[in-house]
Design a protein that fits this description.
single chain, 183 residues, alpha+beta, Peptide Methionine Sulfoxide Reductase, Chain A, three-stranded antiparallel β-sheet, two-stranded parallel sheet, 8 helices, 15% strand
């Protein structure tokens, strides 16, 4: 999405210290999004949140439940307004838990940019653009490419983004071939 600067996956919402995928305890798997408010609004991100999953279904576990975490009261108020609008739209009660973010724990490396990391022949060049794994994970380029190779986005946005990324013709061709299949 235009305006999304970086994404990270991790664990939050619980009280137990140092959760991991194998020992998640009372936490939930979450996506942390950093965005440029001059390009995308918090409200637009929330609209995407509601539409990208089914927040009216009771979760079968805390690990995978629908959870929105906020940093301040202004965000909480915007979330509540957005939740009410979504409930009116679908005519059902949203079961998403809404609470203050106390702490975000970054997930293990193999979970970060999961779709991109599982595309041999593409990920190697993208990772090589950064001095270390953390820089790769934190990059806007990796966030965008991860979205595309997972099937999100559209060709117009991809063309705009790929023009800004200095990839080899071979890697760019591999991505295009993949997108032809999944789109």
């Amino acid at each position: 999405m235009e305006g999304v600067v970086r994404t990270r996956v991790g664990y939050a919402g619980g009280e137990a210290p140092d959760p991991t995928y194998r020992r998640i305890q009372d936490h939930t798997e979450v996506l942390q999004i950093e965005y440029d408010p001059s390009k995308i609004s918090y409200e637009t991100l929330l609209e995407e949140f509601w539409e990208s999953h089914n927040p009216i279904v009771r979760p079968y576990s805390r690990q995978y439940m629908s959870l929105l975490l906020y940093h301040n009261e202004e965000q909480r108020d915007i979330i509540e307004k957005s939740r009410k609008a979504y409930e009116e739209k679908v005519g059902k009660t949203v079961l998403t838990e809404i609470k203050t973010l106390d702490r975000f724990y970054s997930a293990e490396g193999y979970h970060q940019k999961y779709y991109l990391q599982n595309r041999p022949g593409i990920v190697e060049e993208v990772r090589g653009m950064y001095p270390d794994f953390t820089s790769f994970v934190d990059s806007t380029t990796a966030a965008r490419l991860n979205g595309y190779v997972s099937g999100k986005g559209n060709m117009e946005a991809f063309e705009e983004d790929i023009a800004k990324i200095n990839l080899s013709e071979e890697t760019e061709t591999k991505i295009r071939e993949l997108l032809d299949i999944i789109w």
